[in-house]
Amino acid sequence: MVAAASRKSVTKHHSGDDIRSTQSVRWDKKMSNNCATALLVYTMMQIFFVLSFIETKGMSIAPYFGLVLLVAIIIPFCRKYEKRWENMPSVGLSQQSMAARFRKDQVVLWALALGLPFVFVALIKGIGAVI
Description:
With 131 residues, this protein is mainly alpha-helical. The protein contains 4 helices and no strands.
């Protein structure tokens, strides 16, 4: 009796694995997670890296306003990527083509999230050197 019950549970378990392996990847969810994480990393870099370079003496609120502005600039960009991937499954591409597009968009997203703080600091340093 116990052996029969365990065989049934093994059969059910294996059939569940087969169903999961044939399901398609949720590219929209993966891109949404990447956008959220990239936005979080970008914001943390702005706070700890950029803010240390643009702080002014005294009680100026300008660096903090600049920080909010820089974060506000990237949010629509991340939202554009999320919207694009919400509509992507209706295009009818193969999973391999979707994976290649996803990787390309992921690389661009992370390059911007990690690179823009450094570009901003270089721009501020350059303007400071000229003035």
